[in-house]
Amino acid sequence: MIDSVRTKLTLWYIGVLAVALVVFSLGVYALLSKALNLRLDAALRTTIAAAAASLTHEIDEGETIAQAAHSMVQDLFIPQQALAVFDTEGRLLAERHAHDQSQARLPKLSLIPGDHPLLYTMRNVKSANGIPLRFAVQRIQIAPHGPTYLVAICQSFETVNEQLVALRQVFYVTVPLALLLAGMGGWLLAHKSLAPVVTMSDTASRISAENLDHRLPVANPRDELGRLAITFNDLLARLNAAFAQQRQFMADASHEMRTPLHVVRTAAVVTLEQTHREEEEYRDALVMINEQATRLTQMVEEMFTLARADAGRRPIDQRDFYLDELVAQTARAAAILAASKGITVQLAQTRETLYRGDENLMRQLLLNLLDNAIKYTPDGGRINLKLDRKDNTHIITVDDTGTGIPEEAQAHIFERFYRGDKARKRAAFNGHGSGAGLGLSIARWVAQAHGGNINLERSASSGSTFVVRLPSN
Fold first, then answer.
1. Pairwise CA distance, residues 107 & 120, whole Å
2. Are 158 and 31 within one domain?
């Protein structure tokens, strides 16, 4: 329970709110305590000022100091305050106790200033109910050159304490109640906020390789959870595409391998049906079996190359070599293959071109393009090969006078095992390319592995043009 995100969010919410409420409560308590103490001091100052004015008035009316003092302490009747009048020697002239029987006292006479009240607290002097007292004392001179008297007042902190106790009781009730309500609200909010996560988790748990087309629900595509669901759905889409491509790859590979295996098995069965055959018949059967085995070997090697490329395990052996020499070598090899069909392979004049890359892979790219051109170029046709450089890009162009590629197939020719014209008879196997529709896929991967690309620039009834662009390095 404690490990759930909902519980953790609720606890964090309650904890942060508790800290905020405690800090707020302490601040309010401190401010109110200070305000109440200041108000108590102000009340004491007001009473001293009133006592001084009353004492001066009584003396001006002709009363003696003793009579004036008694009249003043009786007139200024404030139940919470004790009032006393002393002479300069500290002798008591008149006093009145507070309702809690507290008495006004004097500090050391040397501590009393001459022009303003002195306020002080004696923590060891308490009222009858054990509450500390606040004192105020001031010197009062009746006339400019007349005698000086001391007026002392005290009042307990009872009112201050009562209000602070009431405030604490309010906090003791409201803070836990606020935390309880906040916890319940936080739990409900966390439950509501995390409900899409629970739904996504339940949906994701039901997704497997068999139903990768399912998607997570997106409640709000603009919030974080919505964006997470969209990102996860994009991942599922990529996985679904990868699985579909893998399944299609396996199905196509099985289909392509079935034909040569069937030919091998048929040739062996037909040859073995009779106990004795001529040597020439055995040779023909072995030649057919060898051709199909060679075709299967080439197909498996191409499939292995693509599988390693997909897994990122086909290293690129970067070396310096002359690209123009490689183009010339592949052109000569293609010319030998094309001679049996009367096809001419022409190489345009090229300049010396130093390049850094995987020479074997680049040779395979060029042979695959030329082999593809030879297959679908009629007898007596022509293939043009050219190497140019424009800005910082090497451009290799393979142009043929073949039958062209149907428009609806042009977008798929680089897909594995794809052949645009299913009815077209496959050209005779010539040792380069399996005839399984993997040549152009490998060529595209090689170009991309070198930071370039390969495109079908033109395809019509008069022929096709493939262009390879490689960044200069």
1. 9
2. yes
**Residues, the chain:** 473
The per-residue pLDDT of the chain, averaged, comes to: 83
Rg (CA), the chain: 52
- Tell me how far apart the alpha carbons of residues 77 and 435 are, in angstroms, rounded to a whole number: 120
The phi, psi pair for 214, rounded to 5°, reads -70, 150
The CATH number of the domain where 158 resides is what?
Answer: 3.30.450.20
Beta-bridge mates of residue 346: 384
Q: How many other CB atoms are there within 10 angstroms of residue 22's CB atom? A: 12
| Long-range contacts of the stretch 140-144 (C-beta < 8 A, 24+) | 140/51, 140/52, 140/55, 140/56, 142/55, 142/56, 142/59
pLDDT at 3: 67
Which residues, listed in sequence order, are joined to residue 81 by a DSSP beta bridge? 155
Find the helix or strand (DSSP H, E) in which 95 lies.
strand 92-96
Higher-pLDDT residue of 413, 33 = 33
Is pLDDT above 80 for 170?
yes
Closest CA to 8 of 187, 175, 259: 187
The whole domain housing 301 covers 224-310
* pLDDT, position 309: 67
Number of H helices, E strands in the chain: 8, 12
Torsion of CA 189, 190, 194, 196, to 10 degrees: -10
CATH code, domain with 350: 3.30.565.10
Q: At which residue do the structure tokens 């200033």 appear?
A: 113
Three-state DSSP at 283 gives helix
Mean pLDDT of 73-91: 86
CB 20 within 8 A of CB 12: no
Q: What's the confidence (pLDDT) of residue 433?
A: 41
Distance between CA atoms of 455 and 407, rounded to whole angstroms? 14
Name which of 59, 133, 53 is nearest 98 in CA terms. 133
Q: Which residues of 403-414 are buried (b: 16+ CB within 10 A; e: fewer)?
A: bbbeeeeeeebb
* Domain end among 164, 181, 206: 164
CA nearest neighbour of 365 among 392, 412, 335, 327: 327
Closest CA to 60 of 144, 143, 139: 143
Residue 322 φ then ψ, to 5°: -95, 115
